[in-house]
Write a structure and sequence with these properties.
This protein is mainly α. The chain has two domains: 3-144, no CATH class; 200-310, no CATH class. 48% of the residues lie in helices and 11% in strands. The chain has helices at 3-10, 25-38, 51-64, 74-79, 95-100, 107-113, 121-127, 130-144, 149-172, 176-180, 183-197, 225-228, 241-248, 276-279, 298-310; strands at 17-18, 21-22, 87-90, 114-118, 210-211, 214-215, 217-221, 236-240, 252-254, 262-264. The chain has a two-stranded antiparallel sheet with strand order 1-2. Strands 3-4 form a two-stranded antiparallel ribbon. Helix 2 crosses helix 3 and helix 9 packs across helix 11. The chain is elongated and about 65 Å long. The relative contact order is 0.10. Bound molecules: zinc ion. Zinc ion (ZN) binds next to strand 8 and helix 13. Residues 202, 204-205, 207, 239-240, 242-243 line the site of zinc ion.
Length: 311
């Protein structure tokens, strides 16, 4: 599609209407996909239905929605195909099922039958070009959200800062840039990088539960930020709320080894009812990130071990 045709396509979406109100979901999802591109997370033409996209979608939608608009990304993700914008990519054997299907599948089914969705090539290319990206965003905002322009600009600007911080942390581990950023930006960047590195799984018990963009796990600092001001992802570890709390209380800690395992405080006692499960962690391997560049760094692990032994 030529540029003008693209602009026409994204400004004539079949949004659905309630009374005199156009549903904001499809354009909000497009803003979210532009946000992914801005963060450098749309390197191939495949849009995945996942927590990163959902987080952006939620931010934009909450800024523009009315009370009658639920926070539902599945519908627009599926229905943008009817606008020629987002075409599901079928897994082998599911081509017919997808072609015949008009109503959205469940999230589980979506993952089962598709390998994400695809943008028209020209739109994908323009989304990855900063000048075109701004034009596309401007066209969406002017057409659908003119009265919310400043709120949207603020989100876009903040997401841009978070994205820059994330890149810095991921590529260099240098947290001095993050250190100078406003607290919400710094915290979000660290959280996102650590959770992605661990694929949203607790490094202790393996729990991995994601609802939309809400994950059960949290990004914990090995050496607390207040002590070291270090947001290097290798000073981070993903833990469920229980294990995060336990580590913060020095009840559990990873050993400072190349293949760290969990050690458990002598304060815990299996004769006390309710403590056995946490004691069972002793000696179990830490569930490490897929990429070794995000493995926790030795001094941070040693710090944790020493504190546990001292308490
Ligand atoms: Zn856990």
């Amino acid at each position: 599609m030529a540029t003008d045709d693209l602009i026409t396509a994204i400004t004539s979406l079949r949004t659905g209407r309630v009374g005199d109100h156009d549903r904001p979901h499809k354009p909000a999802l497009l803003l979210a996909i532009l946000g992914l591109a801005e963060q450098g997370r749309l390197l191939e033409n495949r849009v995945s239905y996942g927590p990163e996209l959902f987080a952006l979608f939620r931010r934009y939608l909450l800024a523009v929605r009315t009370d009658s608009d639920t926070v539902n990304m599945l519908d627009p993700f599926w229905r943008l195909r009817t606008d020629g914008i987002l075409e599901p990519v079928p897994r082998a054997g599911f081509e017919q099922a997808i072609a015949a299907r008009s109503t959205p599948p469940s999230v589980t089914e979506l993952r089962e039958i598709t390998e994400g969705s695809r943008l028209p090539d020209s739109l994908f290319q323009q989304m990855n070009d900063p000048i075109h990206r701004d034009r596309l965003r401007d066209a969406i905002v002017s057409r659908y959200f003119a009265s919310h322009r400043s709120a949207i600009d603020q989100i876009t600007q903040e997401e841009r800062s978070i994205g820059e911080c994330e890149r810095q942390l991921e590529q260099t581990g240098d947290s001095t840039v993050a250190d100078g950023a406003p607290e919400p930006v710094r915290e979000q960047a660290f959280r996102r990088v650590v959770l992605r590195a661990y694929d949203y799984r607790c490094a202790a018990c393996g729990l991995r539960v994601i609802v939309d963009d809400l994950a059960l796990v949290e990004a914990a600092h090995l050496i607390p930020w207040a002590e070291c001001r270090d947001d290097d992802p290798r000073n981070g570890i993903a833990l469920c709320k229980n294990h995060h709390w336990a580590m913060d209380q020095y009840l559990i800690a990873p050993t400072p080894d190349a293949q760290p395992a969990w050690m458990v405080s002598r304060y815990l006692d299996d004769r006390i009812e309710g403590q056995r499960e946490m004691l069972d962690l002793k000696g179990r391997s830490v569930l490490l990130p897929r990429e070794s560049r995000f493995y926790p760094k030795r001094p941070a692990l040693a710090w944790r071990r020493d504190r546990l032994l001292r308490h």
